[in-house]
Amino acid sequence: MDVTETIKDILVTDVFVEVPVEDMREDESLRDVYGLDSLGFVELRAQCENRFGVTISAAEFTPDQFGTIADVAALVLRLQDAAAAR
Predict the structure, then answer these.
(1) pLDDT single digits (tens) 33-42
(2) What φ, ψ does residue 68 adopt, rounded to 5°?
(3) I need a surface site. Which of 6, 13, 15, 79 has the fewest CB within 10 A?
(4) What's the CA gap between 79 and 54, in Å, rounded?
(5) Per-residue pLDDT reduced to its tens digit, 49-86
(6) Domain extent at residue 63
C-alpha cells in the first residue's frame, strides 16, 4: 500500500471518517470535506508517525501541511526522504 492509500486507510479506520476510501480524493479538504476537527488532526498525525516511522514536529503540524490527503502524503514522503539521507 502506498503512502496515499495508507493515509486514506488511517482516515477511515483510525480517525473514523465516514467517506468510503474509494470516494476520497487527494485534493479535498480534510477539514471541510472529511470533517476532521482538532482531535482528528492529532490522531492523523500520531497514526502517520506510527505507520510511516516518521516524526512530525510542531513546526510541520500546520494547516498547510495537513490541508489535504496530498499535503499529508507529500510531508510524509519528505520526512522519509530526509531520514533516508541521514
Answers:
(1) 999 999 999 9
(2) -140, 170
(3) 13
(4) 6
(5) 999 999 999 999 999 999 999 999 999 999 999 999 98
(6) 3-85
Q: What is the 3-state secondary structure (H, E, C) of the chain?
A: CCHHHHHHHHHHHCCCCCCCHHHCCCCCECCCCCCCCHHHHHHHHHHHHHHHCCCCCCCCCCCCCCCEHHHHHHHHHHHHHHHHHC
Residue carrying the nine cell digits 465516514: 18
The pLDDT, as a whole number, for residue 1 is 82
pLDDT of residue 86: 85
Contact 15, 40 (CB under 8 A): yes
The pTM for the full model equals: 0.96
Locus of grid cell 487527494: 26
Tell me the CATH number at 47. Answer: 1.10.1200.10
Q: How many domains does the chain have?
A: 1
